[in-house]
Amino acid sequence: MLSWGANSHGQLAQGIVCEQVENPTKVTTDPFYVNKVKQISCGGGHTVLIDDEGKIFTCGWNYKHQCGSNTETHNFVRIWELSGITFTNIACGWDFSCAVTDSNFLFVWGSNKNGQLGLPKDHFPDIMKPFRLPINACSVAMGLRHTAVVNSKGEVWITGCGRHGQLGLGNDRLSTDRFEQVPRLGAITHIACGQNYTVTWCSEEKALYVWGDNKHGQLLLSIDKYKKIFTPQKIDIGVKQTVKKLLSGWTNVLLWLDNGTLCTWGRNNYGQLGTEDSFVGKIIYVKLPDDRQVIDVALGSEHTICLATDNTLWAWGWNEHANTGTKTKSNVFIPTMVPIDTTNNRIVRIFAGCI
Asked: Count of alpha carbons within 13 Å of 107, Cβ hemisphere only?
């Protein structure tokens, strides 16, 4: 496993704290970490990992116990408090985290300042150790200060800060510290949270449902007319293919389709959309050089990492902390190859974090 980029809190699991790791570098692990990586999620300065046995490991920034432990570590360390439980899915917000079990229970921990853990703020402290909630969850997403889950019925339940409309509960509900159902949605199959908005995909209707902040056109609505959306809006973008992934950065969104197409939109001040146009206000179709096909894609807060079928890695977007790993000193506006020697190794999974 390799990591690079910002490492101000040891979130890259390199065993050290430093401003940034410029080149892809091997990750250090503790002696109990012996299995393959299944999923990684990254917050503002912490990282959560699930291995293929469903065990959880964390490292990095821990001032709100977002790592689920009492101490801050710079290597992946298991959350022993959650041992004996098999986890299938994880997500990180800025300073809070969650995980879904194989029985569809949801565990939450970290900051609850805005009710983003779905726990009453008056009775539960700002700092929370892992806590199991009595709600059904299949998939989960976290933004800067809100959390959304999709249950087995395709319903979306949401909690946290809603000042920008990211809760989708109406302009009279600007916050909640209990999970509440978002009304007027189809059966949702994919969900992602941006900094202050929520985007979902309904496979049956082949349509988006979006709500929240639209300052940069990340909801595909008129910026002049719709700066904030407080209730879900259904949008048909003409996609007839099966959606493999719906992903969101802080202010940009990406759909990866079954035929390999990458559709992306939103803010592009750092090259998040893979084009040199400063702002386009429409869907961009990103293509890798020489007609390479996509095998996986991941979004950080303002950069994108893409894996091609020929085992090459491509990146674009914000690069202030060497986020893209391309050795470029400035932001990267078009897909650029990450210089990794893969002669004797095959890249199998990629993940990206907040910064």
From this structure: 22
